[in-house]
Each structure stands twice: as C-alpha cells, then as structure tokens.
Specification:
4-stranded antiparallel beta sheet; 3 domains; Rossmann fold; 6-stranded mixed beta sheet; alpha/beta; 470 residues
Length: 470
C-alpha cells in the first residue's frame, strides 16, 4: 500500500480529534502516542532494511568474486555458482524475507550480480506498510596489470601432517594452488599477459637431470661426494688383482687376500694401481644446493669462468619435484601441482632464490625480457622453521641467508607474499617469513590446512586486482 493511502486513516482521526470539545487529557495523551509509535516503528523497520541490505551486499560480493575468479563458465554455470555462493554467505534469517534469485550480468572485464528481497514490516504494518523492497548489486572487475608469478612451495616431509579435520597440508596446498591458477588464468586478457612458475623446494631444488651438460652447473662437490676408487694389479698375498670401491659401497676381493666392505677395509692392500672413477654426470638426479655465498642470495647470471657464480649439483636422496619455468600453459602448470610430493628438510632461502631466478632473464631459467607494465610476484609458502642448507643445520644462520635474499629481491622490485602454515599455532610465528613479506598485509600466519585455500584466494584477488568496484 502506498505511504499516502496508509496514513489517511490516521489523518482523519486527528482531524476528528481537533474538532472534538469533550475530550480530556488522558484521551489527548493516548492519541498523541499514535504518531510517536508510528515514528518509532518507521525507525525500527528502516534499521531492519539497512541490516538486510548490508547482508545482501556481503553475500553478493562473495558470489561476484567467485564467479570472477573462475574462467570458462557458461551463463548457466555462472548463475549456479553465484547462487551457491550467495546462499552460503547470506546470513539474515527468514524473518527478514526471502531473497529473489541472484541474477548475473557479464560485462567487458567485469561481472555484476544482483538480487532483492521484500523485508516484512513490524510497527509500520499499523499504518498499512506490509513490506519494504530492498535491492543490492555487486560489480567485480579485473585489473589490467600483467603478471609474472613464482609459486615457491614447501614440499618438505612435514607437509604430510594433517590438521584436526584430517586434511594434510600438501593436499590443501594443491587445492589452493589450483584455485589460484584458475584465478590467474582468468585475469589474463591476452595470452602471455600472466605467466606462472612453480618451485617445489625442501633442502634443495630440482632443476631437472636433463640439464647435466649445462654450463651453469658446478660439479666440484658432486664429483667429490660420488666418486670411487678402483685398485688393480695389487701384488700382495699371492699377487692377484683386487677391485675395491669406497663411496658407492661396492665390496670386492682379490687373490691377494684383502677385502673391502662398503669401502672401509683395505688392510692387506699392497702396491696397487689406484684409479679414481667419477660416475657420469647423466646419473645425477637434478638436485641443486645453495650457491656460494653471497651469490646464494642474488639472481646474478652465472659465469662459467667464475665458479662461485655457478649452481652446485647435489645428489640429495629426498630431491623434490623438478621445478617448472615461467609458463602460461595452464594444463601443464596444473599437472605440476598434482605431481608434488613431500620429503626432506627445510631451506626457505633456496626456494626463494630459485623463485627469483624463474623471473630473471638469462641462465639458468631464461625468463626473457620483462614486458612493460608487468609486475613480478613471489608467493612463498612454508610450514616450518629452517632446518638445513648446504652448510649448516643452525636455524639462525639459515634465517640470516633468507633475510639477505628477501632484501635483494624486494630491492629489485619483486612483490613478496609469504604464508606460514603452523598447525594449531604450535610455533607461534615465523619471523623470517614475516620479515620477508613486502608488507604486513602480505604475510599470512595460518593454523589449519584449510586456511591455505582462503589465503591463496586473498592473494589472488590482490595480485590480479580482482575487486568489488561497486
């Protein structure tokens, strides 16, 4: 009923009162309560309407961000997703009315979602107002910034731990990473506008064993650790030949009466010809340890004439999954996430250093020249404190290397987000990761596995400029 029609009975009553001559004070006071009650009722009902509008807007924002973060949806799929997210986030109860179905309107670089609800009136019902229509809409837009993003992801053994829901950290990380990749893909207006690299790390990183002939690899430590010796033409005992090894654990014996068990016993070896054998580099598993200091904290292009600038090969038994260079092959990126596995100790410095390398032109990753208006971003997630690098297991020493690497990357214009997954808050905080983040808003301290998904969603919205415009 229109407001003018609803107030007419009250106006007629007041005119009759004005003409009356036999009224008394009690009647006068009682009648004055009517407009006072109506005014109070209007305020109450208007407040209810404001509450509903706020909750509509909150739920529509969530629905719009969900649709905007997902590419390749049909109109019906967008409608279904928007409705599902709205239903999950709308918190007003049924006494405030039932909202109409959410409508979705795609635009150029944007999506708009809207709905309305007839809010039942309470005291205003006395003057003929049964309900008040309340509507709301939310428009989500994408930014135009181009992106190079390095996902530096902890793949250490502790990532298999589960929270109270039974969800492991590595499982939640895969889910979160897939959703982030979808958001990044959707933010790419043109092929190549957004590219992503993935760097699984533990104590080492894996650059791929197929690179064994690359000029940027230093084999000094690997050769020393994996070489073995042979002993021939020994003339001890009866003068026969013997064959022995040390580091690879081969046991051999000769007719001179000497034996070798795991390369430790050469007691009767006499007058042998000793030959050092270096295994072929093609047997390398692809693992790389920290560069020589201070190159371990820089993205300096390796120089084959300067060994300190090269990347030392390692034969770490818990070598992580091979990293993936910068790419916009979204299927391959998704497969890389699926293939991650957990094992080994924690060295956040080397993960960060190689994340930076994947965003750098020249050897070893050859990312190419950074296109104009392209932002470089590193997202570093880890679930624990630093436990081992090339030189030490001392946490504070490794933290100091990480601090230098973070300073250098940020000084070069790289934006760094850090995520610390600390189940149940047992560690309290990660000072190195908190320091490494480009700002306090870019550091996330999580206490459940599931929170990884929400954190990556927030980061994705920030770096793609996916935002609620109105």
């Amino acid at each position: 009923m229109p407001f003018g029609q609803g107030i007419r009975p009250l106006r007629a009553l007041l005119r009759a009162f004005a003409r009356a001559r036999k009224g008394n004070i009690a009647i006068t006071f009682a009648l004055l309560l009517v407009p006072i009650a109506v005014a109070a009722g209007a305020g109450l009902d208007f407040s209810r309407a404001l509450i509903v509008r706020a909750r509509l807007s909150e739920a529509l924002d969530a629905a719009g961000l969900a649709v905007g973060a997902t590419s390749g949806l049909s109109t019906q799929q967008m409608q279904t997703m928007a409705q599902d997210y709205f239903n999950a986030n709308y918190t007003a109860d049924k006494s405030f009315g039932t909202p109409a179905a959410v409508t979705v309107t795609p635009g150029n670089g944007s999506v708009t979602v809207s709905t309305s609800v007839d809010v039942p009136m309470t005291l205003m019902n006395l003057v003929g107002y049964k309900s008040m229509p309340v509507s709301a809409s939310s428009q989500v837009v994408w930014g135009s910034t181009k992106l190079w993003v390095a996902l530096v992801l902890d793949n250490t053994g502790s990532m298999t731990e589960t929270d109270r829901s039974g969800t492991s950290k590595i499982s939640a990380l895969k889910t979160a990473s897939h959703q982030l990749l979808t958001m990044l893909q959707n933010a790419s207006a043109n092929p190549g506008d957004v590219k992503v690299s993935i760097v699984p790390f533990n104590r080492d990183v894996n650059v791929g064993s197929s690179n064994y002939s690359a000029s940027w690899i230093d084999w000094t430590a690997w050769d020393a650790a994996n070489s073995y010796q042979t002993y021939t033409n020994c003339n001890g005992g009866s003068g026969g030949n013997g064959y022995y090894s040390n580091n690879w654990g081969y046991s051999g014996s000769g007719s001179d009466g000497s034996y070798s068990y795991g390369g430790t016993n050469y007691s009767n070896r006499q007058n042998c010809t000793v030959t050092t054998v270096v295994p072929p580099h093609s047997t390398w598993n692809g693992c790389i340890m920290d560069r020589t200091q201070n190159y371990d904290t820089l993205n300096t292009t390796p120089d084959p004439t300067n060994t300190a600038t090269l990347f030392p090969s390692d034969q770490y038994n818990s070598c992580p999954l091979q990293l993936m260079a910068l790419s916009d092959d979204w299927t391959a990126l998704g497969n890389e996430i699926d293939n991650m596995y957990a094992g080994g100790n924690t060295n956040q410095t080397i993960g960060l250093a190689w994340g930076w390398q994947t965003l750098t032109d020249g050897d070893p990753m050859n990312a190419g020249t950074l296109p104009q208006d392209t932002q470089q971003v590193i997202i570093l997630l880890s679930d624990g404190l630093n436990t081992q690098n090339r030189w030490t297991t001392n946490e504070s020493s490794i933290d100091a290397r990480e601090k230098l690497a973070c300073d250098n990357a940020k000084a070069a214009g790289v934006i760094i987000y850090t995520v610390f997954v600390d189940l149940n808050g047992t560690s309290g905080n990660s000072a190195p990761l908190q320091y490494c983040a480009s700002s306090s808003s870019k550091y996330f301290d999580l206490t459940t596995s599931g929170a990884i998904v929400a954190a990556f969603n927030t980061i994705g919205q920030q770096i793609t400029n996916l935002r609620v415009a109105k």
